[in-house]
Amino acid sequence: MKAGSALTVERMVKLGRVSRSGFYRFDDGAKPRPDPDMDLRDVIQRTVDPNLLAITAGRTPANPSELLSSERMKTLITNLRHGPFDWIVIDTPPVLAVTDAVILAPMVAGVTFVIGAEMTRRRLAERALETILASHPKMVGVVLNKVDFARNKYYYSRYYGHQYKNYYAEAV
User: Fold this and answer.
1) CATH class given for the domain over 1-91
2) Contact of 126 with 96, CB cutoff 8 Å
3) Structure confidence by residue, pLDDT tens digits, 73-122
4) Which residue of 43, 73, 114, 172 has the fewest CB atoms within a 10 Å radius of its CB?
5) Which of 37-41, 116-120, 153-157 has the highest mean pLDDT?
């Protein structure tokens, strides 16, 4: 499979945690943080990976929900979709904390709902998923991450067969 180009949009209207974490190492120094009046070319940043570009979070506006549901945001997403990127990933805060994901879900091609194993209570995950589904996204995928396979190897072996029962524990 050939590597494609990707753009990550980090919590556009919230505080940027990923950009401060060191996950991105920008190759041309820090660009200005996004502002609603800036040109898109001025806020897309190159990273050390030539196939990954990023838009990191800017200042939190007074009305983030209104900005996300605005025609300007719809136009931005349409322009990005028709741009040179094979993948556009928009990171949003947790579904039940704020409305960002619910507002953006119908505007994008799909939603990936990420659940931290043994971190998220089942009822909260169900409620968050129901909330996302109520916004009528085109497609939804679910990822369960942070699974402790060594601790749960017998649970997973029931579903994946006896031949895999040690595979996951050895992979850790």
Assistant:
1) alpha beta
2) no
3) 888 888 888 888 899 998 888 899 989 999 999 999 999 999 988 888 99
4) 172
5) 116-120
Identify the helix (H) or strand (E) that includes residue 133: helix 122-134
What does the alpha-carbon distance between residue 58 and residue 68 come to, in Å, rounded to a whole number? 13
pTM of the model: 0.71
The structural domains of the chain, with segments of one domain joined by +, span 1-91, 111-172
Q: Does the pLDDT at position 14 exceed 60? A: no
Report the largest interatomic distance among the alpha carbons of the chain, rounded to a whole angstrom.
Answer: 58
The helix/strand/coil state of 42 is: helix
Q: Where are the beta strands (DSSP E) in the chain?
A: 6-10, 45-46, 52-55, 87-91, 111-116, 140-145
Task: Return the pLDDT at 38.
Answer: 64
Burial class (CB in 10 A: 0-12, 13-18, 19+), 93: middle
Pairing mode of beta strands 111-116, 140-145: parallel
